[in-house]
Every structure is written in C-alpha cells, then in structure tokens.
Q: What sequence folds into this?
C-alpha cells in the first residue's frame, strides 16, 4: 500500500482480500441453500466493471473541465437509472418511460443544480468534482424512491380496483377515488429516506461523510455537507415520486373519469 495526499491507496492484493468476502458470502449462501451464489458473483463482477469504467470516465472528465462531458455523463446516469427502475417495476403504468424519465430529470436535475448553485456556490457551475458525485448520490436515492412509488401505485390501484370504481360511480373525482392509493405509494417512496435520516450519525456513518473524513476533511465540515446533501436527497425523492404519481395516475383513467380496466387486465 502507498499513501498519497493523506489517502491510503489500495493495491491488487488488498482488493483481492476485499473480494474474498464475496466468496465467503457465496459460501454461506450455498450452506443456507439460498441459491444466491451466482447472483452474488455476477453482481460483484458487474460492480467492479462499472466502477472502474466510471473511474476512468471521471478521470477524463476531470481533465477536460468542460460543461458538455459533465452534462452528458449526468444524462447517461439518468438514462441508466430509468432502465434500472423499469427492471424493478413489474406492472408498468402507461407511458412509463416518458413519465419516469421526465420526473427523474426534473426531480433530480433541477434540485442538483439549485443545491450546487445556492448552497455550495460552485464556480464554475459545472465543476465535475462536485456536480457529478453529488448528482450521482441524488439520482441513486431518487431512483429507489421512484421505483417504490411506481410499483406501489400500480399495486394499490389493482388491489383497490373495486373500491375505486365504486367511488367513481358515487360521483368522486379521479383524485378523490385514487387518493388512498396515492397516499400509500408516496409514503412507501419516502420510507428509505426517513429511515436513513433517523439512523444517520448514531447507527451508521453515511458514505459521503466517511469519504470526506478519510480524505482528511474536518469532521464538522463533513457533517454539514452530509446534512445538506441528505436534505436535498429527501427533497428530490419527494419531488420525483410526486411527479411520477401525478402523471402516472392519469394513465389509469379515461377523460370521462372511468377506470381503464383494460390497462389493469393487460398488466
């Protein structure tokens, strides 16, 4: 191992020791009969390839110091996040990719830029050393909330089908009839962020704060950054999920305020 700028580098041997823990997890999975050994191996390999690819991409982007490659990389991350969400959601709402894509762009992109400009005050505004890591954290957490919101909305409408149709027959608007489903989906989307904030600092130290401390940053500065980014993450999850729910709800109903049963039957 070598140390540079106060950071301890990890060589091939140290990384091999770390990946040995994956082999241990695979062994335990086999011992328990869980059958997840292959998934663990493939996920670990995929993680390694993706992180090394991102590391080289960031090295290039940092060297160029131009807005275009930074924005292209963030758009690529957003696009891949939509694909990941699609893989997690079994029953997709009508117009799924358009709705989720637009919601992720507005919910993540807008709040990332606002945070970097108003809170941090980046100069230049596209500084890749801040914008890309912060944008990645916001996109990653919003992705989880978005997948939970989209999946729960579909499941709630399917399970409450008779209840919703009865409410519509009695004169309720679409919003009134579907409000319990919307409320349940939004609550589910926020649960990971609420749990993370509640346990942060006492039960676990978050990755951003830990990374800054390891790089030599004053712990109090790291704490302030972590609190700020967690607030932005929660706001982004709430905004992205709300946009998905508001837009997605329309796909399940006709302009005449009738439930589109053919959509549910196709799912």
A:
């Amino acid at each position: 191992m070598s140390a540079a700028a106060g950071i301890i580098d990890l060589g091939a041997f140290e990384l091999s020791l770390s990946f040995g823990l994956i082999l241990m997890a695979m062994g335990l999975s086999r011992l328990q009969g869980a059958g997840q050994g292959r998934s663990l191996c493939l996920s670990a390999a995929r993680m390694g390839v993706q992180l090394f690819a991102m590391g080289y991409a960031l090295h290039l982007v940092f060297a160029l110091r131009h807005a275009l490659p930074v924005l292209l990389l963030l758009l690529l991350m957003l696009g891949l996040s939509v694909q990941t969400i699609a893989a997690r959601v079994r029953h997709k709402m009508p117009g799924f990719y358009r709705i989720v894509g637009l919601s992720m762009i507005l919910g993540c992109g807008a709040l990332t830029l606002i945070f970097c400009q108003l809170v941090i005050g980046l100069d230049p505004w596209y500084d890749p050393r801040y914008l890309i890591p912060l944008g990645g954290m916001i996109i990653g957490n919003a992705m989880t909330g978005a997948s939970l919101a989209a999946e729960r909305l579909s499941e709630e409408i399917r399970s409450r089908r008779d209840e919703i149709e009865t409410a519509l027959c009695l004169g309720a608007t679409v919003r009134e009839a579907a409000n319990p489903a919307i409320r349940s989906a939004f609550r589910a989307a926020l649960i990971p962020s609420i749990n993370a904030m509640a346990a942060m600092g006492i039960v676990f130290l978050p990755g951003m704060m830990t990374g800054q401390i390891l790089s030599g940053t004053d712990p109090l500065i790291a704490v302030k950054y972590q609190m700020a980014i967690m607030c932005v993450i929660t706001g982004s999850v709430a905004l992205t999920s709300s946009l998905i729910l508001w837009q997605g709800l329309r796909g399940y109903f006709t302009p005449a305020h009738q439930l589109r049963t053919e959509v549910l039957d196709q799912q």
Strands lie at 3-4, 7-8. The first helix runs from residue 12 to 32. The two ends are 54 Å apart (CA to CA).
